[in-house]
Structures are given as structure tokens and as C-alpha cells.
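Budget justification aside, the reviewers requested a transparent look at the raw inputs and outputs of the sequence design task funded under Objective 1. We therefore reproduce one unedited record. The lines immediately below are the C-alpha cells for a 219-residue chain.
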């Protein structure tokens, strides 16, 4: 995992449940089929700074190659859909637009080297799921950045990215506990934050796609 870029976040933007991130191994195809006791043991053994992932039912489901090791299962609480955003075209909206869908959120910045390093993989994940803006899909992949709109627009155009991208119109809500960039969240259709991964990772894998599709059934 690449070292994350530091980002100053006040105490009001932290959550106790997110003070420790664990080496994330997103859950595999057998979502909800493992044992919670195994997850608890891994949680107790996880080193400080290690990250975590929770399954739809709070049960272990194996690890995902390419993301990390030592997966632990934990719920990170409920997503705040009031997060105010702005599209590159200037449209103002909130995360409410994506309520009820499985949501993959990558928070990044153009000045953050680890962020830039993983963006192609996020684009590939988006392409592999055949998601288009406004499509009737149960899964949404989005990019959110604190960059100025002009800087983000230039960067995205230069890289040829087509993932729906937004600028923060309001600082990241405390419900997400953002500490540094890049951070990736996966939110279940019912609003549970089931993954919070600090640092760059390889996202376009069969296991990640299977996990997202399994979560989409949780309605």
C-alpha cells in the first residue's frame, strides 16, 4: 500500500471507529459466509494503523488479492448523504443522488502521488462494471476531490478519466472520518459504510467486483 498523503483534518472530522485503519482485504465472493469469531480474532491482532472492512452481515468472507492482508470485519457506521458536492460542469448536488445503490467513493487529489497512482485502476473498475453516468445500475463509482474545479478538470481531461467526478462543496462529513488521501469507501445500499481504506490499492479485481455486486443485492 502506498503511503497516504497527509491532510489536516480537525477533531470534529474524526470518528472513534475510524481512528484505526487496517490493511484492507475487501471481502471476496463468499460474502457473509464466514465466521464472526475469526474476524474478531483478526481484529484483535491487527497492528495499529491497519485498516478494516466489514461484510454485509458482519461475517468474514475471505480476502481480496491486490488490496491487502489481515482483513478484519467492522461496520463504520452510516454514510452522511448530505455531503455537498459540485460536478465539473458546476452542478450542485449531494450524495443523496446515490442513496440506495452500492457506492464506491474514492477521495483523491491531483497533488497526491498515491492518489494519482491508483486512479487508472479505479477507472478500470468503473469500465469493468459497465457503469455510465445516469445509467440504471445498482452500483456507482465516483471520485471526490478537495481540488479546485479548474485543477481537477484539467487533470481528469489530461488523464482521460470518465468516472463521475465531483468537487467538495463542503468539507467531508465527520461520518466518514477522513484523515488522509487517498481514502476509499464502500457504502452498502442501506447506507452502512462497510469499507474505509486508507492509501492506494489495486481495485479492479474479480474479488472487488464480486463484493460490490453482492452488496448490491442487500436492499
Amino acid at each position: 500500500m502506498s503511503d497516504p498523503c497527509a491532510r489536516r483534518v480537525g477533531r470534529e472530522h474524526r470518528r472513534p471507529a475510524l481512528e484505526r485503519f487496517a490493511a484492507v482485504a475487501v471481502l471476496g465472493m463468499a460474502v457473509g459466509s464466514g465466521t464472526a469469531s475469526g474476524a474478531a480474532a483478526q481484529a484483535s491482532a491487527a497492528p495499529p494503523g491497519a485498516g478494516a472492512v466489514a461484510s454485509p452481515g458482519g461475517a468474514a468472507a475471505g480476502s481480496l488479492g491486490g488490496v491487502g492482508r489481515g482483513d478484519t470485519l467492522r461496520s463504520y457506521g452510516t454514510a452522511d448523504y448530505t455531503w455537498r458536492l459540485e460536478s465539473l460542469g458546476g452542478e450542485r448536488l449531494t450524495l443523496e443522488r446515490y442513496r440506495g445503490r452500492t457506492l464506491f467513493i474514492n477521495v483523491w487529489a491531483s497533488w497526491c502521488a498515491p492518489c494519482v497512482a491508483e486512479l487508472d485502476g479505479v477507472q478500470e473498475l468503473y469500465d469493468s462494471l459497465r457503469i455510465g453516468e445516469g445509467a440504471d445500475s445498482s452500483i456507482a463509482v465516483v471520485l471526490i476531490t478537495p481540488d479546485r474545479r479548474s485543477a481537477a478538470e484539467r487533470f481528469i481531461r489530461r488523464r482521460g478519466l470518465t468516472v463521475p467526478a465531483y468537487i467538495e462543496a463542503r468539507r467531508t462529513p465527520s461520518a466518514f472520518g477522513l484523515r488522509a488521501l487517498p481514502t476509499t469507501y464502500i457504502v452498502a445500499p442501506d447506507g452502512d459504510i462497510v469499507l474505509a481504506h486508507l492509501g492506494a490499492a489495486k481495485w479492479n479485481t474479480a474479488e472487488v467486483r464480486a463484493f460490490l455486486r453482492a452488496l448490491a443485492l442487500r436492499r
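Helices lie at 36-45, 113-128, 149-159, 206-216. Confidence is low (pLDDT under 50) at residues 8-73. Computational costs for records of this kind are itemized in the attached budget.
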